[in-house]
What we know:
The complex is a heterodimer. Chain A is 74% helix and 7% strand. Chain A is of the alpha+beta class. Chain A contains eleven helices and four strands; from the N terminus they run ααβαβααβαβααααα. By secondary structure, chain B is an alpha/beta fold. Chain B has a single domain, classed as Rossmann fold (3-Layer(aba) Sandwich), CATH 3.40.50.300. Chain B has helices spanning 41-48, 74-78, 96-106, 111-124, 140-152, 170-185, 197-203, and strands at 2-10, 16-25, 30-35, 56-61, 64-65, 81-85, 158-162, 189-194, 206-211, 214-219. The chains are: A alpha+beta, B alpha/beta. The A-B interface holds A 3-4, 7, 14-15, 18-19, 212-213, 216-224, 226, 305-306 and B 49, 51, 71-72, 74-76, 78-79, 81, 83, 89-93, 102-103, 105-108, 110-111, 150, 154.
Amino acid sequence: MWAKTKRVIQSGFVNFWRNGSISLSAVLMMIIALFVISSVLFVGALLTSALNQIKDKVDINVYFVTTAQESDILSLQKTLQAMPEVKSVDYVSSDQALQDFKDRHVNDQSTLQALSELDKNPLGAVLNIKAQDPSQYESIAGFLQGKNFISRDGTPIVESVNYAKNKVAIDRLTAIIASSQELGFVVTLLLVLLSILITFNTIRLVIYMSREEISVMKLVGASNMFVRGPFVVTGVMYGLVAALFTVIVLYPIMYYTHNFTLAFAGIDLLQYYLRHFGEIFVLLLGSGVLIGGVSSFLAVKRYLKV
Amino acid sequence: MIHFDKVTKIYADDSKALDEVTFSIEPKEFVSIVGHSGAGKTTLLKMLMAEEEPTSGKVFFGSTNIHKVKRGELNMLRRRMGAIFQDFRLLSKKNVYENIAFAMEAAGCPQSEIETDVPHVLELVDLSKKIWNFPHELSGGEKQRVAIARAIVTQPDIIIADEPTGNLDPMNTYEIVQILKKINDLGTTVILTTHNKGVIDSLKRRVITMENGKIIRDDKEGKYNL
């Protein structure tokens, strides 16, 4: 049994080597398929990072009256932080709000002048609330509007909550994120299927060219396994070589694009590639070997009926 | 050893390749089958190799009905037959040694046996010098000698040669026929189909003549008579 297995493996290797140009074309097709599979991975990471960046820009701001006590605001911050939907609550004191305002209008002398003529700070403190997920802003806003926050002396401390203003934008963003993720999944699936199909057809063509030899092998008395085995080994070799080539070529591609991806989507794909190298390598190797092996196995089948 | 029992083969286009063919071949016989193109010679051999199924009738190899053998077990039966074809059908990506070794490897022979038998059989067909050449580096006669070496290396019970000299010049034809005779003298049954009158007449062995899928003559020491 071992002797036969050894012969099958050896024969597969020899076929791969001696069929030079045919092996090369099969490997090239496989490389394209593996590039599609890996690009799906990188586009996914890029999209997730870009969406996270956008998600991060969305928040609810609770504006407090200028007379609100810091201790009341901080206790509300604590209550909000305890909610499972809430990711973070940043407190901006009225002094900080004033400073931020000044910084924003540093070139706008008339506004700054108008501000300096006021005898006290007109800006109240603000709580910036970020939800775990954009769809959860509604319930956070509901919580804020459902309660009357009052200070110990009975005066309301919240001046306004800007959720209603942001609602349309938030809703639209939530919808875009959901549908882009769905669309991404469908497109991914289609691309992967297509590339697998093209590779399968290339391997089928390669084996079609050997159909005469397959029938001779059968007539000489070879079993199906003995005829098929070397083709499957050769198919696995296509996957192996293509996977190795793909991971090597991905490095310079990531190297030359990492500044662009960092600026565009806030993710350094080179770092991402190096951090996930093991998983990417196993994924490409596994896909290549599986596509090559299974394609060859299926393609030989029809010529074995001699 | 081989028995065709009322074998008829009708192809999908209604053409009758074999028409109730009945004959037997005894062990160690050298039988030539002659006939015009389309007479049914190749179909007959394909039946024997189980490449084709008869429309009706039975083909026996020993006591085995060839067409009742399961597909998965056909290879065991085929290892008892050595096939030689007009177009040689060597494996183009394997060299001479590997082409011959393939038949032994397929039969599960141990490596040591392969390493001694392949050079030996190549000596028999006088091709020892071309052991590492690839088929495209050989002449027609040399290719056919490799094919014969491949066919006999597993010591089959029968050699089936389908017009083995069809693509060869007279000199190579003579040599191939001499090799087949030698194989037969060593005790292997040989079935040969051919168009070559000279070959048949020089052999002085049994000749089955076919026409339109029927056997019209079966002579113990026949001549080419068409």
